Amino acid sequence: MSTSKTIKSALISVFNKDGLAPIVQKLNELNVTIYSTGGTEKFIKELGINVVPVEEITSYPSILGGRVKTLHPKVFGGILNRQDHQGDVAEMQEYNIPQLDLVIVDLYPFEKTVASGAPEKDIVEKIDIGGISLIRASAKNFKDTFTVSSMDQYEEFLSILSENKGETSIEQRKKFAAKSFNISSHYDTAIFNYFNEDEVVFKASQQNSKTLRYGENPHQKGYFFGDLDAIFDQVHGKELSYNNLLDLDAAVNLMDEFKDEAPSFAILKHNNACGFAQRENMKQAYVDALAGDPVSAFGGVLIANSEIDAETAREIHKLFCEVVIAPSYSDEALPILKGKKNRIILIQKEVELPNQIVRTSLNGLLVQDKDNITDKLTDLSYATNNKPTESELGDLLFASKLCKNTKSNTIVLVKNKQLLASGAGQTSRVDALNQAIEKAINFGFDLNGAAMASDAFFPFPDCVEIADKAGIKSVIQPGGSIKDQLSIDYCNDNKLSMVMTGTRHFKH
Question: From the candidates 8, 26, 72, 140, which is the catalytic residue?
């Protein structure tokens, strides 16, 4: 038995009519009987094409202000009948049900209505009932029925229609059926997430996808699910890689801590800042950020919190870097940065980032709220007799922001709003501190008067002792250890100042 089917009849019910006209015209050329209702019926009539109102099938008008139009046994019988099933064939004849070979639906724009800030009443009215039922029914019966479930599929469907004169293969029908269930599941997920307040469940659906060159390593496949165009305009360079995207996420979240502050520049490598400085102008911010670790900066990701000008661009151009991110660039800066063929240049847009973090773990997922707490002056408790100066307080809070966005265990050393060094991702806090001190010294920094931040409490006084001997005189940490007093006592005995935030910032 042939699995090919020729479309002889179609039911069309769409919200958005853009791009529909060529399909309707092609169906008319192929002598396909077209059924429709409401605004779609009117649209087809205005094209000068014959259309049969659905009411002629159902013998029932559209009711409840259009809420019920296609929900009828004759409509769904026409879609769901099995053409090779004798019982179905007999019932189709008995109840005078017309065969429907094609269903074209474009659902009410629920997500767009939510995004528009519309009131709940309007949002609820954009929950499609008839449309979602039609595409599920026709997709289920893909052996006999072709389903077009979104206007995004119009072009591909028109090509199939034109090339094969209305004949479709089982492979084509199954492919479009899969698309239909993708559309319906995504639609229902969006509705559930809008309504859900109490149920602890994880439902997510992302329609936008991008196949990457590979994953973290060349032997791994990689994909990005999301809308990069909503966050960045890429104005130059090669395609973003999986690792680029990991670093972009880290860079954007870090610089978000310094939004609307003085010119700030960060250089990241492997998700951690290897250089960061805040200055009166962007060029100096970049120069001082680079000084933090010019070795690690090679091949790094660079981000600024405000416009990059020509002077800054000329300095950046001396460095091999993968990506440069800024909210804007001067007219003179862009041509300079474009001087390297593969350098990725991104303009960052104002967009709200997700408030949940999702990771795979074993045979499931870990989901948590984003760490949205940024330590502020009003959060601090002064644990020691010695109080930090105003300048030291500025450096402590600066260091805390960097610490929060660095892999644990971490220690961050800062002086005059410049990252001197960090110990990132170490298995002990002492190792993290020793790494940071050694690194800072290797790059010629004077640690006398530097500020130190820790992402978690000190279980012993060894860290403050090591810091003191290196010249560090002010410390910020969450506190909360049963042995906090030992660290406090050491600081008091050696004239260090220490403040506690009460908030741990682990970043595993």
Answer: 140
